[in-house]
Specification:
The structure is a single chain. This protein starts with 10 loop residues before the first helix and ends with a helix. A 4-stranded antiparallel β-sheet has the order 2-3-7-6, with no helix packed on it. A 3-stranded mixed β-sheet has the order 1-4-5, covered by helices on one side. Strands 8-9 form a two-stranded antiparallel sheet. It is α+β, with helices and mostly antiparallel strands. It contains 11 helices and 9 strands.
Protein backbone atom coordinates (compact mmCIF):
# COMPACT_ATOMS: atom_id res chain seq x y z
CA UNK A 1 0.00 0.00 0.00
CA UNK A 2 1.30 3.45 -0.96
CA UNK A 3 1.02 5.28 2.33
CA UNK A 4 3.44 7.57 4.11
CA UNK A 5 3.96 7.10 7.85
CA UNK A 6 1.82 9.45 9.90
CA UNK A 7 3.42 11.29 12.81
CA UNK A 8 0.61 10.10 15.09
CA UNK A 9 1.33 6.42 14.41
CA UNK A 10 2.70 4.35 17.32
CA UNK A 11 3.87 0.73 17.60
CA UNK A 12 0.61 -0.07 19.43
CA UNK A 13 -1.45 1.40 16.60
CA UNK A 14 0.63 -0.51 14.03
CA UNK A 15 -0.20 -3.69 15.92
CA UNK A 16 -3.85 -2.73 15.89
CA UNK A 17 -3.67 -2.04 12.15
CA UNK A 18 -2.27 -5.50 11.46
CA UNK A 19 -5.03 -7.16 13.52
CA UNK A 20 -7.79 -5.08 11.94
CA UNK A 21 -6.42 -5.69 8.44
CA UNK A 22 -6.36 -9.45 8.94
CA UNK A 23 -9.89 -9.44 10.33
CA UNK A 24 -11.47 -7.27 7.63
CA UNK A 25 -9.58 -9.01 4.82
CA UNK A 26 -10.58 -12.49 5.96
CA UNK A 27 -14.07 -11.86 7.40
CA UNK A 28 -15.60 -8.91 5.56
CA UNK A 29 -13.90 -8.48 2.17
CA UNK A 30 -15.16 -11.88 0.87
CA UNK A 31 -18.73 -10.79 1.70
CA UNK A 32 -18.61 -7.40 -0.06
CA UNK A 33 -20.03 -8.74 -3.32
CA UNK A 34 -22.87 -10.48 -1.47
CA UNK A 35 -23.68 -7.33 0.49
CA UNK A 36 -23.78 -5.26 -2.70
CA UNK A 37 -26.24 -7.68 -4.28
CA UNK A 38 -28.56 -7.80 -1.26
CA UNK A 39 -28.14 -4.05 -0.58
CA UNK A 40 -27.32 -4.39 3.09
CA UNK A 41 -24.76 -5.78 5.51
CA UNK A 42 -25.77 -8.82 7.55
CA UNK A 43 -26.51 -8.19 11.22
CA UNK A 44 -24.06 -10.92 12.13
CA UNK A 45 -21.29 -8.79 10.62
CA UNK A 46 -22.27 -5.83 12.79
CA UNK A 47 -22.08 -8.02 15.89
CA UNK A 48 -18.74 -9.47 14.76
CA UNK A 49 -17.39 -5.95 14.28
CA UNK A 50 -18.56 -5.09 17.77
CA UNK A 51 -16.86 -8.13 19.26
CA UNK A 52 -13.64 -7.17 17.47
CA UNK A 53 -13.83 -3.65 18.91
CA UNK A 54 -14.24 -1.99 15.51
CA UNK A 55 -17.42 -0.11 16.46
CA UNK A 56 -17.23 3.07 18.52
CA UNK A 57 -13.74 2.47 20.03
CA UNK A 58 -13.58 6.12 21.10
CA UNK A 59 -16.56 5.75 23.44
CA UNK A 60 -15.64 5.67 27.13
CA UNK A 61 -15.34 2.21 28.62
CA UNK A 62 -18.40 2.64 30.82
CA UNK A 63 -20.50 2.88 27.66
CA UNK A 64 -18.96 -0.15 25.94
CA UNK A 65 -16.09 1.56 24.11
CA UNK A 66 -12.35 1.46 24.62
CA UNK A 67 -11.70 5.07 25.60
CA UNK A 68 -9.59 5.42 22.45
CA UNK A 69 -9.06 8.60 20.43
CA UNK A 70 -9.39 9.59 16.80
CA UNK A 71 -6.18 7.76 15.86
CA UNK A 72 -7.76 4.38 16.57
CA UNK A 73 -10.84 5.41 14.60
CA UNK A 74 -8.58 6.48 11.73
CA UNK A 75 -6.80 3.12 11.61
CA UNK A 76 -10.10 1.23 11.45
CA UNK A 77 -11.65 3.52 8.82
CA UNK A 78 -8.51 3.27 6.66
CA UNK A 79 -8.44 -0.51 6.79
CA UNK A 80 -12.03 -0.76 5.60
CA UNK A 81 -11.00 1.37 2.60
CA UNK A 82 -7.80 -0.55 1.89
CA UNK A 83 -9.79 -3.81 1.89
CA UNK A 84 -12.32 -2.39 -0.56
CA UNK A 85 -15.24 -2.75 1.86
CA UNK A 86 -17.62 0.17 1.24
CA UNK A 87 -20.87 -1.52 2.27
CA UNK A 88 -20.26 -1.30 5.99
CA UNK A 89 -21.79 1.99 7.17
CA UNK A 90 -19.51 2.41 10.17
CA UNK A 91 -19.11 6.16 9.67
CA UNK A 92 -22.85 6.84 10.04
CA UNK A 93 -23.09 4.44 12.97
CA UNK A 94 -20.23 6.28 14.70
CA UNK A 95 -21.80 9.68 14.04
CA UNK A 96 -25.02 8.52 15.71
CA UNK A 97 -23.04 7.37 18.75
CA UNK A 98 -21.08 10.61 18.96
CA UNK A 99 -24.26 12.70 19.01
CA UNK A 100 -25.55 10.70 21.95
CA UNK A 101 -22.19 10.83 23.73
CA UNK A 102 -21.87 14.59 23.27
CA UNK A 103 -25.42 15.68 24.09
CA UNK A 104 -27.30 12.79 25.64
CA UNK A 105 -28.40 12.63 29.23
CA UNK A 106 -26.75 9.98 31.38
CA UNK A 107 -29.85 7.81 31.02
CA UNK A 108 -29.73 8.13 27.23
CA UNK A 109 -26.05 7.19 27.16
CA UNK A 110 -26.60 4.16 29.36
CA UNK A 111 -29.62 3.05 27.33
CA UNK A 112 -28.15 3.32 23.85
CA UNK A 113 -24.36 3.52 23.66
CA UNK A 114 -23.47 -0.03 24.83
CA UNK A 115 -25.71 -1.50 22.13
CA UNK A 116 -24.10 0.66 19.45
CA UNK A 117 -20.62 -0.38 20.62
CA UNK A 118 -21.51 -4.08 20.57
CA UNK A 119 -23.29 -4.04 17.23
CA UNK A 120 -26.56 -5.19 18.78
CA UNK A 121 -27.95 -1.83 17.67
CA UNK A 122 -27.30 -0.28 14.26
CA UNK A 123 -27.25 3.51 14.22
CA UNK A 124 -28.13 6.18 11.67
CA UNK A 125 -28.81 9.89 11.49
CA UNK A 126 -31.71 11.31 9.48
CA UNK A 127 -31.17 14.86 8.25
CA UNK A 128 -31.98 15.10 4.53
CA UNK A 129 -35.54 15.42 3.30
CA UNK A 130 -37.07 15.35 -0.17
CA UNK A 131 -36.58 18.83 -1.58
CA UNK A 132 -34.26 20.20 1.12
CA UNK A 133 -30.83 18.67 0.45
CA UNK A 134 -28.25 20.67 2.40
CA UNK A 135 -30.81 23.26 3.53
CA UNK A 136 -31.32 21.95 7.06
CA UNK A 137 -33.03 25.10 8.30
CA UNK A 138 -36.02 24.40 6.05
CA UNK A 139 -36.77 20.83 7.04
CA UNK A 140 -40.47 19.97 7.32
CA UNK A 141 -40.47 17.00 9.71
CA UNK A 142 -42.33 18.14 12.82
CA UNK A 143 -42.23 16.97 16.42
CA UNK A 144 -45.21 18.39 18.34
CA UNK A 145 -45.29 17.94 22.08
CA UNK A 146 -48.43 16.39 23.52
CA UNK A 147 -48.08 15.89 27.25
CA UNK A 148 -45.21 13.48 27.92
CA UNK A 149 -44.74 12.61 24.24
CA UNK A 150 -43.68 14.11 20.94
CA UNK A 151 -45.74 13.29 17.88
CA UNK A 152 -43.49 13.13 14.82
CA UNK A 153 -44.68 13.51 11.23
CA UNK A 154 -42.61 13.83 8.07
CA UNK A 155 -40.20 12.03 5.79
CA UNK A 156 -36.46 11.66 5.24
CA UNK A 157 -34.48 10.39 2.27
CA UNK A 158 -30.94 9.29 1.36
CA UNK A 159 -30.51 7.86 4.88
CA UNK A 160 -27.45 5.62 5.11
CA UNK A 161 -28.09 2.51 7.27
CA UNK A 162 -31.75 3.49 6.98
CA UNK A 163 -33.15 0.08 6.13
CA UNK A 164 -31.39 -1.69 9.00
CA UNK A 165 -31.02 0.96 11.70
CA UNK A 166 -32.51 0.28 15.11
CA UNK A 167 -31.59 3.69 16.52
CA UNK A 168 -31.92 6.87 14.45
CA UNK A 169 -31.07 10.43 15.44
CA UNK A 170 -33.79 12.39 13.63
CA UNK A 171 -33.60 16.11 12.87
CA UNK A 172 -37.01 17.67 13.53
CA UNK A 173 -38.68 21.05 13.88
CA UNK A 174 -40.10 21.55 17.37
CA UNK A 175 -40.98 25.19 16.61
CA UNK A 176 -41.29 26.10 12.90
CA UNK A 177 -41.47 29.82 13.72
CA UNK A 178 -37.94 30.05 15.11
CA UNK A 179 -35.87 29.06 12.06
CA UNK A 180 -32.67 27.31 13.04
CA UNK A 181 -33.50 27.87 16.73
CA UNK A 182 -36.59 25.71 16.31
CA UNK A 183 -34.62 22.61 15.30
CA UNK A 184 -34.19 19.72 17.74
CA UNK A 185 -32.81 16.18 17.62
CA UNK A 186 -34.80 13.19 18.80
CA UNK A 187 -33.49 9.65 19.14
CA UNK A 188 -35.88 7.10 17.70
CA UNK A 189 -35.75 3.44 18.66
CA UNK A 190 -37.39 2.00 15.56
CA UNK A 191 -38.00 -1.51 16.87
CA UNK A 192 -41.76 -2.18 16.88
CA UNK A 193 -42.44 1.54 16.69
CA UNK A 194 -45.99 2.34 15.49
CA UNK A 195 -46.15 4.91 12.71
CA UNK A 196 -42.55 4.42 11.60
CA UNK A 197 -42.09 3.09 8.07
CA UNK A 198 -39.11 2.40 5.89
CA UNK A 199 -39.37 3.02 2.18
CA UNK A 200 -37.39 1.30 -0.51
CA UNK A 201 -33.66 0.78 -0.43
CA UNK A 202 -32.53 3.29 -3.03
CA UNK A 203 -30.81 2.05 -6.19
CA UNK A 204 -27.57 4.02 -6.24
CA UNK A 205 -24.68 4.47 -8.66
CA UNK A 206 -22.21 3.10 -6.13
CA UNK A 207 -21.86 1.93 -2.54
CA UNK A 208 -24.63 -0.51 -3.36
CA UNK A 209 -24.16 -2.56 -0.21
CA UNK A 210 -25.07 0.38 2.02
CA UNK A 211 -28.79 0.31 2.79
CA UNK A 212 -29.60 3.90 1.87
CA UNK A 213 -33.34 4.34 2.37
CA UNK A 214 -36.37 6.53 2.64
CA UNK A 215 -37.98 6.91 6.08
CA UNK A 216 -41.54 7.95 6.92
CA UNK A 217 -43.04 9.12 10.20
CA UNK A 218 -46.82 9.02 10.55
CA UNK A 219 -47.91 10.16 14.03
CA UNK A 220 -44.93 8.47 15.64
CA UNK A 221 -45.20 8.94 19.40
CA UNK A 222 -41.93 9.28 21.29
CA UNK A 223 -41.48 9.83 25.03
CA UNK A 224 -40.06 13.28 25.77
CA UNK A 225 -37.04 11.42 27.19
CA UNK A 226 -36.05 10.80 23.55
CA UNK A 227 -35.24 14.49 23.03
CA UNK A 228 -31.45 14.55 22.72
CA UNK A 229 -30.01 16.57 25.56
CA UNK A 230 -33.41 17.22 27.11
CA UNK A 231 -33.82 20.78 25.76
CA UNK A 232 -35.67 21.92 22.63
CA UNK A 233 -34.08 24.19 20.04
CA UNK A 234 -30.53 22.92 20.41
CA UNK A 235 -30.51 20.76 17.28
CA UNK A 236 -28.88 23.14 14.82
CA UNK A 237 -26.09 23.95 17.29
CA UNK A 238 -25.58 20.23 17.92
CA UNK A 239 -25.40 19.52 14.18
CA UNK A 240 -22.85 22.27 13.57
CA UNK A 241 -20.68 21.05 16.44
CA UNK A 242 -20.63 17.42 15.25
CA UNK A 243 -20.31 17.92 11.49
CA UNK A 244 -16.50 18.39 11.72
CA UNK A 245 -16.16 14.76 12.90
CA UNK A 246 -18.24 13.52 9.97
CA UNK A 247 -16.32 15.62 7.46
CA UNK A 248 -12.98 14.54 8.91
CA UNK A 249 -13.99 10.90 8.48
CA UNK A 250 -15.04 11.51 4.87
CA UNK A 251 -11.74 13.27 4.14
CA UNK A 252 -9.79 10.46 5.78
CA UNK A 253 -11.61 7.91 3.62
CA UNK A 254 -10.90 10.01 0.53
CA UNK A 255 -7.15 10.03 1.20
CA UNK A 256 -7.11 6.29 1.87
CA UNK A 257 -8.98 5.72 -1.39
CA UNK A 258 -6.44 7.81 -3.30
CA UNK A 259 -3.62 5.75 -1.80
CA UNK A 260 -5.36 2.49 -2.68
CA UNK A 261 -6.11 3.60 -6.24
CA UNK A 262 -2.48 4.54 -6.87
CA UNK A 263 -1.26 1.28 -5.33
CA UNK A 264 -3.48 -1.08 -7.33
CA UNK A 265 -2.90 0.88 -10.55
CA UNK A 266 0.87 0.79 -10.09
CA UNK A 267 0.73 -2.98 -9.75
CA UNK A 268 -1.54 -3.26 -12.78
CA UNK A 269 0.65 -1.21 -15.14
CA UNK A 270 3.73 -3.16 -14.09
CA UNK A 271 2.09 -6.37 -15.28
CA UNK A 272 0.03 -5.15 -18.24
CA UNK A 273 1.82 -5.19 -21.59
CA UNK A 274 1.18 -2.94 -24.59
CA UNK A 275 3.24 -2.59 -27.76
CA UNK A 276 5.70 -5.13 -26.40
CA UNK A 277 6.47 -3.49 -23.05
CA UNK A 278 4.94 -2.88 -19.65
CA UNK A 279 2.48 0.01 -19.55
CA UNK A 280 4.53 1.52 -16.72
CA UNK A 281 7.40 2.08 -19.17
CA UNK A 282 5.41 4.69 -21.09
CA UNK A 283 6.22 8.22 -20.00
CA UNK A 284 2.55 9.23 -19.82
CA UNK A 285 1.88 6.41 -17.36
CA UNK A 286 4.80 7.34 -15.14
CA UNK A 287 3.90 11.03 -15.18
CA UNK A 288 0.23 10.40 -14.35
CA UNK A 289 1.18 8.13 -11.46
CA UNK A 290 3.80 10.61 -10.28
CA UNK A 291 1.13 13.31 -10.14
CA UNK A 292 -1.32 11.00 -8.36
CA UNK A 293 1.29 9.84 -5.86
CA UNK A 294 2.11 13.46 -5.07
CA UNK A 295 -1.56 14.24 -4.49
CA UNK A 296 -1.83 11.19 -2.24
CA UNK A 297 1.10 12.49 -0.19
CA UNK A 298 -0.37 16.00 0.01
CA UNK A 299 -3.67 14.56 1.13
CA UNK A 300 -1.99 12.43 3.76
CA UNK A 301 -0.10 15.41 5.20
CA UNK A 302 -3.29 17.47 5.26
CA UNK A 303 -5.38 14.77 6.94
CA UNK A 304 -2.65 14.09 9.50
CA UNK A 305 -2.70 17.80 10.32
CA UNK A 306 -6.48 17.67 10.77
CA UNK A 307 -6.21 14.62 13.04
CA UNK A 308 -3.66 16.48 15.15
CA UNK A 309 -6.00 19.47 15.41
CA UNK A 310 -8.95 17.21 16.27
CA UNK A 311 -6.99 15.57 19.08
CA UNK A 312 -6.30 19.06 20.48
CA UNK A 313 -9.97 20.05 20.06
CA UNK A 314 -8.84 22.72 17.59
CA UNK A 315 -10.27 21.45 14.28
CA UNK A 316 -12.32 24.41 13.10
CA UNK A 317 -15.20 24.27 10.57
CA UNK A 318 -13.24 26.10 7.86
CA UNK A 319 -10.22 23.78 7.95
CA UNK A 320 -12.32 20.62 7.96
CA UNK A 321 -14.41 22.04 5.10
CA UNK A 322 -11.18 22.55 3.15
CA UNK A 323 -10.18 18.99 3.88
CA UNK A 324 -13.52 17.51 2.88
CA UNK A 325 -13.70 19.55 -0.34
CA UNK A 326 -10.10 19.05 -1.54
CA UNK A 327 -9.67 15.39 -0.68
CA UNK A 328 -12.98 14.25 -2.15
CA UNK A 329 -12.36 16.21 -5.34
CA UNK A 330 -8.93 14.59 -5.61
CA UNK A 331 -10.37 11.17 -4.81
CA UNK A 332 -12.64 11.39 -7.84
CA UNK A 333 -10.00 12.84 -10.19
CA UNK A 334 -7.20 10.46 -9.18
CA UNK A 335 -9.43 7.40 -9.45
CA UNK A 336 -10.53 8.62 -12.89
CA UNK A 337 -6.88 8.86 -14.00
CA UNK A 338 -6.16 5.43 -12.56
CA UNK A 339 -9.15 3.92 -14.33
CA UNK A 340 -7.88 5.43 -17.59
CA UNK A 341 -4.54 3.70 -17.10
CA UNK A 342 -6.39 0.39 -16.87
CA UNK A 343 -7.77 0.96 -20.36
CA UNK A 344 -10.91 -1.01 -21.23
CA UNK A 345 -10.41 -3.28 -18.25
CA UNK A 346 -10.96 -0.33 -15.94
CA UNK A 347 -14.56 -0.20 -17.15
CA UNK A 348 -15.17 -3.81 -16.11
CA UNK A 349 -16.85 -4.46 -12.78
CA UNK A 350 -14.47 -7.32 -12.02
CA UNK A 351 -11.64 -4.80 -11.57
CA UNK A 352 -11.42 -2.99 -8.25
CA UNK A 353 -10.79 0.39 -9.86
CA UNK A 354 -14.23 0.26 -11.53
CA UNK A 355 -16.02 -0.15 -8.20
CA UNK A 356 -13.83 2.55 -6.67
CA UNK A 357 -14.93 4.93 -9.45
CA UNK A 358 -18.66 4.50 -8.84
CA UNK A 359 -18.30 4.39 -5.06
CA UNK A 360 -16.32 7.64 -5.01
CA UNK A 361 -18.79 10.03 -6.62
CA UNK A 362 -21.06 10.46 -3.61
CA UNK A 363 -18.15 11.74 -1.54
CA UNK A 364 -18.62 15.15 -3.16
CA UNK A 365 -22.30 15.19 -2.16
CA UNK A 366 -22.94 13.77 1.29
CA UNK A 367 -21.68 15.27 4.53
CA UNK A 368 -22.44 18.65 2.96
CA UNK A 369 -21.95 19.14 -0.77
CA UNK A 370 -18.60 20.45 -1.94
CA UNK A 371 -20.34 23.64 -3.03
CA UNK A 372 -21.44 24.14 0.58
CA UNK A 373 -17.87 23.46 1.69
CA UNK A 374 -16.60 26.23 -0.57
CA UNK A 375 -19.27 28.60 0.73
CA UNK A 376 -18.19 27.90 4.31
CA UNK A 377 -14.56 28.51 3.36
CA UNK A 378 -15.44 31.71 1.49
CA UNK A 379 -17.20 33.15 4.55
CA UNK A 380 -13.84 33.20 6.33
CA UNK A 381 -12.25 35.50 3.74
Amino acid sequence: MIRSTSPWMTPELEGLRDAVRKFITSEFAPLEEKWCKQQHVDRSAWRAAGEMGLLCPSLPEQYGGQGADIRTEAVVFEEFVYAGVTSFGKHVHEICAHYILAYGTEEQKQNWLPGLASGELIGAIAMTEPGTGSDLQNIKTRAVREGDHYVVNGAKTFISNGAMADLIVVVVKTDPNLGSKGISLVVMDTRDLPGFRRGRVLDKMGQKGQDTSELFFDDVRLPVSCLLGGQEGQGFYQLMQQLPFERLVLALAAVANIERAVAITTEYVKERKAFGKAVLEFQNTRFKLAESLTEARLGRVFIDHCIDLFMKDQLDPVTVSMAKWWTTEKQCSVIDECLQLHGGYGYMNEYAICKMYTDARVQKIYGGTNEIMKELIARSL
